Amino acid sequence: MHNIDYLNNPYPSQRNTVFAKNGMVATSQPLAAQAGLDILKKGGNAIDAAIATAACLTVVEPTSNGIGGDAFALVWTKGELHGLNASGPAPQSISIEAVKELGHETMPKMGLIPVTVPGAPSAWAELSKKFGRLPLSEVLQPAIDYAENGYPVSPTLGKYWRGAYNAYKKACTTEEFAHWFETFAPDGRAPEIGEMWSSKGHADTLRQIGETNGESFYRGELAHKIADFSKQHNGFLTYEDLAAYKPEWVQPIKVNYRGYDVWEIPPNGQGIVALMALNMLKEDTFTERDSLETYHKQIEAMKLAFADAKKYVSDPSTMTHTSEDLLSDSFAKARRELIGETALAPEPGTPPKGGTVYLATADGEGNMVSFIQSNYMGFGSGVVVPGTGIGLQNRGHDFSLDHEHENALAPGKKTYHTIIPGFLTKDNEAVGPFGVMGGYMQPQGHMQVVMNTVDFHLNPQAALDAPRWQWMEDKKVVVEHHFPQHLAQALSRKGHQIQVTLDGGSFGRGQIIWRDPKTGVLSGGTESRTDGAIFAY
Questions:
Q1: Of 43, 59, 173, 202, which is most buried, counting CB atoms within 10 Å of its CB?
Q2: How far apart are CA 166 and CA 324, in angstroms?
Q3: Number of domains, the chain
Q4: What is the per-residue pLDDT for 438?
Q5: Strand order in the sheet with 476-480
């Protein structure tokens, strides 16, 4: 990366960018990052390391993801970028009418109704089969060891675990939730920070996934256990839904921003939101990061992009407008013209016709992976399949029960998806993977990190440490406590409804690895808002 000041990080964490040559793993939990590095040192490549880290995160950060969640990946190998969509569809037996007959006017958050087909295990198996070097069983072994033998709960993990337990204790009182408490609160409470936690069922499940290359989960013993439990509690998910599922290789989408290609997974993911916002801003010149003009235009572009995405983005097979429509220069120009001197209340435009963990890995051969997986809303649905450690996701909560809505619930349909991996290239060379997990903060974090890097030449750690803002709805914008106060006041005078919060976790948790194309040297930054770690050699 050109013009980066690697010594300058004026932001609170004061961590330094990490450098290495042979391999690097960056993620939100040190034990998982170490697991990925161990796989690299055993002869695995960046893809093997990503799988090992992802599987390990289901054990050592269960508050954000699990075996029963979804995943997406961007993989750079041999000069080409590949996209994997491992998000699962709604069950074939579900429908708007069926959900309403159960007394719901909107999709519920908890229980078996919002459960969609889990995609994460299929992502591990597919990545291993297509690009991995080591057997999947060996790659999953670090995660199996932690699940079987236990590990001490880290600080941020303990905080979110306690919060989830308190919330689930109030909301999840019926029989179908009992196994969540048996698995994640075995002593009648959340584990304390520094206390050991293990899950034999989780270990057994990971072992079966590794030994069968994922087949047990979709077409074997684990699939039957999931389906039987769903049937027992009147869920919609069946064995047939699991057996029919396959992850999908997709062509990543991009916009060119000041000579850099910024890449995302296409819909049903929301990565297109970041691209639409950057597309609106690419004609502007930003010379100073902490300026009123920069923040105002960023916020306005982002809210317009979200308005469009929430109206038009869903399962691509049902979308009335394509990614090409939404990323066209003519549409970007029309939306950019709406950005004025004061805050607007966003409305969607008319295009032309036509709870999460993130990790980044790189090896000494030039392979790089941007990987994200989630159960959604922390632990997900609150439903755990007995004896397996499989916490099922509640991704179906994002479906609409309005037949006219673009993201209306339908059998076998994929919903609008919040989790997104990002990747940066320049002149057809990899710059590297980046991501910021955290619900609807993710595309906002992506845009801010890209601009911090490209426009303001911040090094990877500084790009992550810089104070963030988050557009919530209408004109409401939440900013971090160390956001410049005079700029928060100036934004307020422009009509933005600014709120300052002490909760840094709501602003996402990011990782970055950049690669110097001339020397192959890797530089990485990790999130200061969580137990983030980079392991490298």
A1: 59
A2: 44
A3: 1
A4: 86
A5: 469-473, 476-480, 497-501
pLDDT digits (tens, 9 = 90+) for 211-242: 999 999 999 999 999 999 999 999 999 999 99
Separation between Cα atoms, residue 38 and residue 35, nearest integer Å: 5
DSSP run (H or E) holding 488:
helix 485-493
* Four-CA torsion 95, 100, 102, 104, nearest 10 degrees: 120
Q: What is the average pLDDT across 407-427?
A: 96
Domain holding 463, by residue range, is 1-537
Q: How large a percentage of the chain has pLDDT more than 90?
A: 91
Q: Is 183 a catalytic residue?
A: no
Catalytic residue among 205, 356, 453, 530: 356
Q: When comparing pLDDT for 506 and 189, which is higher?
A: 189
Write the DSSP assignment of 420-475 as a string of letters: --EEEEETTEEEEEEEEESGGGHHHHHHHHHHHHHTT-B-HHHHHHS--EEEEETT
Give the pLDDT confidence score for residue 11 in this predicted structure: 83
Average pLDDT over the chain, rounded to an integer: 95
Give CA–CA dist 503/480, Å, rounded: 8
> Residue 6 — very low, low, confident or very high, per pLDDT cuts 50/70/90?
confident
pLDDT score for 352: 65
Packing angle of the helix pair 442-454, 292-312 (nearest 10 deg)? 140
Question: Helix/strand/coil (H, E, C) string of 335-383?
Answer: HHCCCCCCCCCCCCCCCCCCCEEEEEEEECCCCEEEEEEECCCCCCCCC
pLDDT confidence band for 3 (50 / 70 / 90): confident
Rounded-to-integer distance, Cα 72 and Cα 410, Å = 22
Residue with tokens 């060119």: 256
Q: Is the pLDDT assigned to residue 354 strictly greater than 60? A: no
Strand-pairing partners, residue 83, are 74, 250
The pair of three-digit structure tokens given for residue 89, joined into one six-digit string = 């569809």
Cα dihedral 163, 236, 416, 55 in deg (nearest 10): 60
pLDDT digits (tens, 9 = 90+) for 95-132: 999 999 999 999 999 999 999 999 999 999 999 999 99
Do 396 and 409 contact (CB within 8 A), yes or no? yes
Burial 379-399 (b: 16+ CB within 10 A, else e): bbbbbbbebbbbbbbbbbbbb
- Are the CB atoms for 504 and 492 separated by under 8 Å? no
Question: 328, 321, 276, 282: which is closest to 302 by C-alpha?
Answer: 276
Sign of the dihedral through C-alpha 486, 274, 77, 358 = positive
Q: Which residues face 510 on adjacent strands?
A: 436
**Residue matched to tokens 């209340």:** 345
115, two tokens? 């459960």
pLDDT digits (tens, 9 = 90+) for 242-272: 999 999 999 999 999 999 999 999 999 999 9
Any residues with CB less than 8 A from the CB of 257 and at least 6 apart, and which? 278, 279, 281, 282, 450, 454
Contact 163, 86 (CB under 8 A): no
Q: Whose structure tokens read 């048996």?
A: 182
